[in-house]
Amino acid sequence: MRNLRDAWHYLTTGANWGGSEGMWHLLVQQLLLTVTALAAAMLIGLTLALWLGHLGRAGFLAVNVTNVGRAVPTFALLAILVTLRHPGTATLGPYGRAGLATLIALTLFALPPIFTNAYVAVREVAAPVKESATGMGMTGSQRFWRVELPLSMPLIVSGIRLALVQVWATATIAALVAGPGLGTLITEGFYRTDYPKGIAAAFVVAVVAFVLEVGSALLERAVDPNRKGTATRSGLPRDRVASGVGG
User: Fold this and answer.
1) pTM recorded for the entire structure
2) Which listed residue, 6, 49, 74, 85, has the most CB atoms within 10 A of its CB?
């Protein structure tokens, strides 16, 4: 109980939030890492997944290759990257020390849920819907942009939502290789038996994760105001896909 009380005192002390080692600075670093890694994963994963899903080809191979990342612990990958001369532990602008290594590791970590959800969402739009669009005279690209993508959007956003929260929470491991983010305070606090500091930083990580989860859930709702009806009409197996991605 005393540690929790001291952790609250740490959080409510303004001096702990300012400066280059303060919580605000480290929070912004971790947010920047998270957003950049997620953006890179979306650029790579969505481009490939939507294209393959539209064509309906090479999906099984692509999904399984992407999911190889699940079998490789992110920290192990990060440790390997920092042993290299490049990216190594060099400072990368606002991303801090070992910033590039951390970005690469987090981007690869974010790829599986983004790619899998996006591919399955487009691939499994009901065949009658696609045939109706073709029968109306739509070209392949028109069918994708006007029919397949809108119907797939809720599941695509669901994959991004999973990746966002996972990457934010995992970004704390950057501190284990002298990287940036709130993980620095967590590891320092527990290593030096300054438990209130570690608990306070962990609390902030948890609160931000909750905010990101709620925000992305609202976005998912916004792109699909009638989720159940849309899923039924489009033939998207939402429950099966979600369970597959989570596993």
Assistant:
1) 0.79
2) 49
